Amino acid sequence: MPARILSGNAIRDQIYGELTQEIAALAREGIRPGLAAVLVGENPASQIYVRSKIAACEQLGLGSWQYTLPATISTQELLALIEELNLRNDVDGILVQLPLPAQVNAKRVLEAVDPAKDVDGFHPVNLGRLVSGRPGLVACTPAGAMEILRRSGIALEGANAVVVGRSDIVGKPMALLLMHANATVTICHSKTRDLPGVVRQADIVVAAIGRAAMVEPDWVRPGATVIDVGINRITDAAEAERIFAKFPAKLAQFREKGAVLVGDVHPGVAEIAGAITPVPGGVGPLTIAMLMSNTVKAARLRRAHAALFASPGTAPGAVAAKP
Ligand code: NDP
Predict the structure, then answer these.
(1) What pTM does this model have?
(2) Ligand 1, CB within 6 Å, residue ranges
(3) From atom 1 of ligand 1, which residue's Cα is the shortest distance away?
(4) With bands split at pLDDT 50, 70 and 90, how would you rate the model's confidence at 307?
(5) Residue 273's domain is classified under what CATH number?
(6) Which residues of 190-201 are buried (b: 16+ CB within 10 A; e: fewer)?
(7) Are 275 and 146 in the same domain?
(8) Containing structural domain, residue 219
């Protein structure tokens, strides 16, 4: 029986509905959450991502600012901009689109972002909060994958979850989120022995590898839930023919456009799994939705924090900071 398709678009729309109400409530308090996006150089994929993020802000009525900087920028110049954005009160979220050019020290730049404005959840302080189960800003793609699982009613407690990929951006935070949701988590990577055998044990498989169609149908236990984080653009005809041999509609799309998207999971897995996210239209839409959600959350938390530490009398009900 074909798998249930876990549509990210439907869940994104649900989240946007909830955010719209929250943004309206903040507006009544005179607060308009705002996101500053920093784009360096002219990487076409980065340009598309930043444009989509700014468009989402506009759709939801959030403030947004785009900073487009030359590919020749130095680490110091970028740090100066981050410092300026850290200090601005109308900026609640700061997003530095990756990758940065080779001459820029990306780690230093990401660590310079105020953790309270780190809406990508990449700052070590936010990663540390995630490790210890404290509230903080969580990386958008794994947070989005969790929203799909939760809102689709997939049982997590006690489930065997296998995460393939251990990047700081996807694999590691995903594994931590699943662990906090009481799944039993195995993390796999390029040195894992018998990867198909390990994946076959999973009730929930998360593929975040960056290898087109790598997770084959016979790796997946019948009925398992599969979250395909990968986004790979296929432009080679032989590869398209191999992957989509049994999927004429996708092959037709390839022949028409000269390219087609595929996840890290082979399309044939949809015949075996119990539930699966499509590519495109699965985890992708949730990444931007969670960025919007993090921006609203950052706006709320930062003001709650400011009120908490304001001197008595400046904010009604405020608690004075201890010396
Ligand atoms: P990285 O390249 O940073 O990490 C890939 C991980 O996969 C590494 O841990 C690597 O292992 C592991 N890996 C690579 N090859 C193999 C292999 N043959 N067997 C087992 N493990 C392997 O990628 P990201 O985490 O940034 O992204 C992963 C995928 O998710 C990509 O396809 C990317 O496009 C997609 N993505 C999608 C997003 C979305 O919005 N939907 C957002 C972000 C990413 P090792 O550590 O040993 O090298």
Answers:
(1) 0.94
(2) 141, 164-167, 169-171, 188-192, 195, 208-211, 229-232, 264, 283-284, 287
(3) 167
(4) confident
(5) 3.40.50.720
(6) eeeeebeebbee
(7) yes
(8) 140-284
